[in-house]
Design a protein that fits this description.
Blueprint: H1 2-35, H2 39-55, H3 58-62, H4 69-102, H5 113-134, H6 137-140, E1 141-142, E2 147-148, H7 156-189, H8 196-230, H9 237-251, H10 253-268, E3 273-281, E4 284-293, E5 301-307
Antiparallel strand pairs: 1-2, 3-4, 4-5
Length: 308
């Protein structure tokens, strides 16, 4: 098929050539920031590690599959590990920003580097166990046709796995991220003292993180569910092609994470300002300082300090 013979090898090559050095650079910078005590850098380190583990398997995916079942299982395991660690760490970043803005004093102790490390360890353990339970070797490898992962028609035991992946691996993280950034969006939008340019900067940052999760992982998980119900239709070619394209789209995540980090850094280097906002809540006046600050070469960091 043209898609597998030309589009896939070129895409895999591009992802490897660009993604490997980009994630190595992001890993190094995030490591430096973590040593300075930045808790968000812990999540960025884990994002880069998850991307690199998958990127290192890309040269194997470039060719038709002559490597056997064992290598197939390892590569598929790394693929799904990248999917779900990315979703979980983006969710962790969203929750951290939500707590920093909506509850800046109440959860200060929660937003520390040690907590981020513990959350990251828990995320890796959960993902490894989840993949160990849901990756069935006989459902992802066809020894006769030398096909790995994309077996058509869908094996019966894989149907419940696809639904589980959709709910646990995408829907729940998507709802968490959507809720957190909706609350952040509302808090920033209500701040009438914030300059329009700064407001746009914040909204673009939030939108970029949402797109990383929704655009990269949404289509492939939706196609997983559609395959359960539509694969036996008279003309399933569109489903096959659509699924293949969505898998490639999900792999853009390996490039999106470093680009997201660069975007956040550029935003942080923009004009820093302190904005005084007076809000009335339950008849009381609260002074709220909205600070958009950066440390040299640090991440875009948004926080609110309440003074009653």
């Amino acid at each position: 098929m043209i898609l597998e013979q030309y589009m896939y090898p070129e895409a895999y090559s591009m992802f490897f050539i660009i993604g490997f050095p980009a994630n190595c650079l992001s890993l190094y910078v995030a490591w430096v920031l973590m040593k300075k005590g930045n808790n968000l850098a812990v999540y960025l380190i884990n994002l880069s590690v998850g991307d690199l583990l998958y990127i290192l398997t890309l040269p194997i995916w470039i060719m038709m599959w002559p490597y056997g079942k064992t290598i197939c299982v390892i590569c598929v395991f790394m693929l799904y590990t990248n999917f779900y660690t990315s979703a979980m760490f983006l969710s962790c970043i969203a929750v951290d920003r939500y707590l920093a803005i909506v509850y800046p004093l109440k959860f200060c102790t929660f937003r520390k580097r040690k907590t981020a490390v513990n959350m990251s360890i828990a995320a890796w353990i959960f993902t490894v166990i989840f993949n160990a339970v849901t990756v069935y070797p006989d459902s992802i490898y066809d020894e006769e046709d030398l096909i790995c992962l994309d077996l058509f028609p869908l094996p019966k035991e894989q149907r419940i796995v696809n639904i589980t992946r959709f709910v646990v691996g995408f829907l729940i993280p998507a709802l968490v991220v959507g809720f957190c950034y909706w609350r952040i969006y509302s808090a920033v939008k209500k701040n009438q003292k914030l300059e329009s340019m700064e407001r746009r900067h914040v909204f673009r940052l939030l939108g970029s993180i949402l797109l990383t999760l929704y655009l990269c992982f949404g289509p492939v998980h939706i196609m997983m569910v559609l395959r359960i119900f539509l694969e036996n239709c008279p003309y399933p070619n569109w489903l096959f092609i659509g699924y293949k394209v969505c898998v490639l789209l999900a792999m853009l995540n390996c490039l999106a994470d470093p680009l997201l980090y660069c975007f956040m850094s550029r935003m942080g280097q923009a004009s820093a300002s302190n904005v005084l906002l007076i809000l009335r809540r339950r008849g009381k006046k609260d002074l709220i300082f909205l600070n958009i600050i950066t440390i040299k070469n640090d991440l875009f960091y948004l926080y609110i300090v309440y003074i009653t």
